[in-house]
Specification:
Layout (H helix, E strand, L loop, with lengths): L1 E7 L2 E6 L10 E8 L3 H8 L9 E2 L4 E8 L11 E4 L9 H4 L27 E3 L2 H4 L1 E2 L6 H4 L5 H11 L8 E4 L3 H12 L5 E4 L3 H10 L3 E3 L6 H8 L5 E6 L6 H8 E9 L24 E4 L6 H12 L9 E6 L4 H10 L6 E5 L1
Helix pairs in contact: 5-6, 6-7, 8-9
Amino acid sequence: MKGYAMLGIGKVGWIEKERPKCGPLDAIVRPIALSPCTSDIHTVWEGALGERHNMILGHEAVGQIVEIGTLVRDFKIGDRVIIPAITPDWGSIEAQNGYSMHSGGMLSGWKFSNFKDGVFAEFFHINEADANLAHLPDTVDPASAVMLSDMVPTGFHGAELADVQYGDSVCVIGIGPVGLMSVAASTLRGAGKIYAVGSRPNCIDAAKEYGATDIVNYRDGDVLDQIMERTHNKGVDKVIVAGGDNDTFIDAVKMLKPGGIIGNVNYLGQGDYVRIPRLEWGCGMGHKTIAGGLMPGGRHRMEKLVSLLENYRLDTSILLTHKFNGLEHLEDALMLMKDKPKDLIKPVVMI
């Protein structure tokens, strides 16, 4: 089979590999819809995970089962399925302890394009199919559903980590596709004021559609100053970090009220340390919690999320600004994520 791979740091291209083998609990899937992620950019061009050679990229997919293991009970050949970006080993100690995304070690529930070939191929492998796949309802568009692989669960996890509650004031830093889903999740969880930090016009329009009450454009002045002015120097109850860099936590801590929580779902691809301001962190005693986490995977969560699409509680088609047809266009879509033109939110490749 052919796949689009990381050849080495800063190098990508098409390669030929053997079709993956199917174990008794597993499935082999062919793609129907695929989408590249900023994580792929961090992995290839920043070397965020270290050197990788001839590793097929991609972890966002909707597909159709072409082979099924003998012990799989709830899926059959021909089923259309949603594939979460995180596919844990559910029998691990970490999963039993409530942290399946770290099964086998920190971040090890993230297998695709980390230490296992990803989904940018003619076929790909799913471990523990009954636990890691979800049926794609006939009423849900595959292009919209592929956003459920990573963008929706990651953005929603930001709101979960920040423990957004009814009436909370929330600042979402970064309104790319993940941040937009954090805005949507904060709305669904009952937030009062939602400050969305970003500058691209289409992302601003989408943030408003998903429930942002205020837009904070960093091109109009310092983000912290704008937040503090709008909150009468009180700050916000919760912060969700969905963009920025290692220094973003400086502003996040400063704008957070004592007793507040920062939920980080931003992939920090460079640097050795995150900076936290000592005084504004209450000299370490300000009850300002910083929680950072990898999205949970699994069928149960995926089925809950797809129900939001089925019942018109969430519309992910707003994220899809660029659409391609044919596996050969994966490179075009990936380079869009690398170059980030102003009109981009998320590309999708239909197979």
